[in-house]
Design a protein that fits this description.
0% strand, single chain, mainly alpha
Length: 125
């Protein structure tokens, strides 16, 4: 359990938001984004929501308040960005072309997976 916490604290989740890459993605895939309805077309907001759910869950864990994590937050934690926001599936296979966005996504995915591992063990105890 301590090993998971140690790994979680070593992941960099406080980097600047990858605005340049999200802007470039939206330009490069303009026609795909234009096909989305307004309520489904907020890559920056949706990626921020995904990241904040993970960061928020981590703050509960590090504060020793695992039991206080809202159930809905845990349910959303079980979803990758592309499963939560399926309208962006068209960029899933190309995010490695956008270095900063890709790095942030991978950092948050690693944290998400570690949090799920930690929470599954804590909730079973």
């Amino acid at each position: 359990m301590d090993n998971v916490i140690q790994k979680l604290t070593s992941i960099e989740l406080d980097n600047p938001f990858p605005y340049r890459d999200t802007d470039k993605i939206q330009v490069d895939f303009r026609s795909d984004f234009m096909m989305l309805t307004d309520d489904k077309n907020s890559l920056v907001g949706d990626f921020n929501t995904y990241c904040m759910n993970i960061a928020g869950t981590l703050s509960y864990v590090l504060a020793g308040k695992t039991a206080e994590i809202p159930q809905r937050q845990i349910e959303k934690l079980q979803l990758s960005f592309f499963n939560w926001f399926q309208q962006y599936k068209f960029i899933e296979d190309i995010i490695n072309d956008y270095e900063v966005f890709s790095r942030e996504y991978k950092n948050f995915e690693e944290a998400r997976m570690l949090l799920l591992k930690y929470l599954s063990k804590r909730l079973c105890d």
